[in-house]
Amino acid sequence: MKIGVLIPTYNRRETLLRTIRAILDQEYPLTDLTLTVLDDAGSDCSCAVLEPLRAEALARGMTGFTLLRNSANKGIAYNRFRLTKESGPAEALLYLDDDVYVQKDTIAGLVGCLARNPGCALVGPRLVYASDPDRTAHCANFIGRWDGRYSETDPDEEMDCDWLNSSCFLARAAAAAVVTHAELFYTAHEEVDFCLQLKKAGWRVRYCPSVKAAHDLPLSGGSRRGRLYYLYRNKLLLFERNFPPVRRLTASIVTVFLGLPLYFLESIKTNRGVNLKELRLILKAVFDGLIGRGGPLSS
Predict the structure, then answer these.
(1) Under a CB-based contact definition with an 8 Å cutoff, are residues 205 and 162 in contact?
(2) Element (H, E) at 248
(3) Which residues constitute the domain of residue 239?
(4) Cα(20)–Cα(116) distance, rounded to whole angstroms?
(5) 151 contact partners, CB below 8 Å, separation of at least 6
(6) Percentage of the residues of the chain whose pLDDT score is greater than 90
(7) Alpha-carbon span 150 to 124, nearest angstrom
(8) 230 and 185 fall within a common domain
(9) pLDDT in the model for residue 224
């Protein structure tokens, strides 16, 4: 199976180098891989330092290694759309974050899972913490039919689910090509939207826990704080795009009247007191989500 590996990057030069080195060390034939890296207008010259790896990959038989750059920072939702559009001929697309390190058998394992499940459009591995490989970071995810709440489970056997984390998943190119990418998300929840669109089109999404990759995340989960606005706003945008009217209404009511107080309590607990700036940001996020305002947060 011909695989197009798609990596968006933004100011993560060191982890990007490690990510690409792991791709080159795959047991999967390099002759069946192409690689496209999209620099989201970063300032650390990420693409420039990739030239030696690019030369090595092509010399070893990789059929394509393309370096792209956005003229301005666009966010992960746009980057996935552009990478999909410019990926070139491939039977499946491996979406990979610039801080995820695949194991030697990761791609082969995901290809095998996809082949065993012809009704699946997308499969993903068990993502573990790079600093604690025995601890799962991302697994099988579900979204409540009426309340829109997320839940997860981490079984030892393969299972269908509603959505998978986009840090590392493999999608059939034909299915990914018909997904309507939503730039309005900018970042956060865009992978849920991606998976739900596939399911609405009649495809399945499958978790493959026997296949692993490592995500270079902090164990504390502290990286969430910088994305609070998008995490809260985009949940409501997700309902608007993927839920029929009645379900959209009930999920939005639950989010506003039950979720909002929890958001406030989480903020107070995390900050060990009232952070008025953050509380105002949360309110703005919920309001913007309800009126359908997307894109990057304006200052």
Answers:
(1) yes
(2) helix 245-254
(3) 222-291
(4) 27
(5) 141, 142, 143, 144
(6) 73
(7) 18
(8) no
(9) 57
CATH number, domain containing residue 172: 3.90.550.60
pTM equals: 0.91
Count of structural domains, the chain: 2
Interior CA angle at 8 toward 7 and 12, to 5°?
100
Which residue reads 């190119």 in tokens?
173
Identity of the residue numbered 98: D
Whether residue 103 is found in the same domain as residue 196 = yes
Amino acid at 66: T
| Helices and strands in the chain: count of H runs, count of E runs | 10, 12
Distance CA 22, CA 282 (A): 38
Low-confidence ranges of the chain (pLDDT < 50): none
Parallel, antiparallel, or unpaired: how do β-strands 204-215 and 159-161 relate? antiparallel
Cβ pair 3, 170 in contact under 8 A: yes
The Cα 101–Cα 153 span in angstroms is 22
DSSP 119: T
Three-class DSSP category at 26 = coil
Q: What is the pLDDT of residue 46?
A: 76
Q: Taking Cα atoms as reference points, which of 106, 207, 107, 117 lies closest to residue 157?
A: 207
* Phi/psi of residue 43, nearest 5 degrees: -115, 5
Q: Do 193 and 236 have their domain in common?
A: no
Q: Buried (b) or exposed (e) across 259-292, using 16+ Cβ within 10 A?
A: beeebeeebeeeeeeeeeebeebbebbbebbbee
